[in-house]
């Protein structure tokens, strides 16, 4: 007695299209697991500050290592994919206010912010009041959650790497 052999599946254009769609949805759901709401919020804030995905890739520490292409794909998905955008927004809204504050404290400095910080002389001994005054004079330039202490720490880093105007 011979057993019948199952015919090999023929890939019709419709079947190939469905298989491709299922692979794409698999990719989307895989990414949904890697990108945490905190990562999305950090990505959005960092891009709004720097307007540069490469700077975000180099300067932001996410919950796991993402390469530049993954960051670009996630940014475009947040902007143009209504499903991913909606899910990400819902998840970010559920973040605890303390978690949001912690994320916002990690946001990169913009070029305009650093430009103002370079004006504080390297030979001066600026106090927190100096940076507080800078915040008050330029509220439109500095990220809303910046503190005088954060400015001071960043200024010290810039001074250490000779990035201030009066340094060579």
From TrEMBL:
GO terms for cellular component: Ino80 complex; MLL1 complex; NSL complex. Residues 34-168 form the Microspherule protein N-terminal domain. One of its GO terms (molecular function) is G-quadruplex RNA binding. GO terms for biological process: positive regulation of transcription by RNA polymerase II. It comes from the Eukaryota. InterPro entries: MCRS1, MCRS_N. Pfam families: MCRS_N. PANTHER family: MICROSPHERULE PROTEIN 1. This is MCRS1 protein. It comes from Smutsornis africanus (Double-banded courser). The gene is Mcrs1_0.
């Amino acid at each position: 007695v011979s057993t019948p052999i199952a015919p090999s599946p023929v890939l019709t254009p419709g079947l190939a299209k469905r298989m491709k769609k299922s692979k794409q949805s698999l990719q989307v759901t895989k990414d949904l697991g890697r990108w945490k709401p905190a990562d999305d919020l950090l990505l959005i804030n960092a891009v709004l500050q720097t307007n540069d995905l490469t700077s975000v890739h180099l300067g932001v520490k996410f919950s796991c290592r993402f390469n530049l292409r993954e960051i670009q794909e996630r940014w475009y998905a947040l902007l143009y994919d209504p499903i991913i955008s909606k899910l990400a927004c819902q998840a970010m809204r559920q973040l605890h206010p303390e978690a949001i504050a912690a994320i916002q404290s990690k946001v990169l400095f913009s070029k305009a912010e650093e430009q103002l910080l370079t004006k504080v002389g390297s030979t001066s001994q600026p106090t927190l009041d100096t940076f507080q005054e800078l915040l008050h004079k330029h509220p439109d330039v500095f990220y809303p959650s910046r503190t005088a202490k954060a400015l001071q720490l960043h200024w010290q880093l810039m001074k250490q790497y000779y990035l201030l105007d009066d340094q060579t």
